[in-house]
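[Structure tokenization] protein backbone as discrete codes
[Encoding] learned vocabulary of local backbone shapes
[Protein] chain in single-letter code, fold in tokens
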Amino acid sequence: MRELRIHGRGGQGSVTAAELIAVAAFEGGVFAQAFPAFGVERRGAPVQAFVRFDNKKIRKRSQVYEPDYIIVQDSTLIKDVNVFQGVKQGGIVIVNTSEKKPS
């Protein structure tokens, strides 16, 4: 099973992105699930969305704590939230930023 966690802010489309990724995986012939985690916060508050996909039925229903992939839609979240928490060794992290990669 592969797991993805998306970090964003309310209104940035993190939940929609997770749903679209899950639909694409399903259309590609694998089992998939997508779901959000947010409270009653308002637009702009940190949110998380999760995706799982696998070749067999997915029975797990918890949040993703050890993702294979992380997408950070707003780089300012790095200061506020531990977006890298639990990433698997060898995992892939994509950060939406205008900053250059450190050398």
Observations:
- The chain is about 15% helix and 30% strand.
- Helices lie at 14-27, 77-80.
- The radius of gyration is 14 Å.
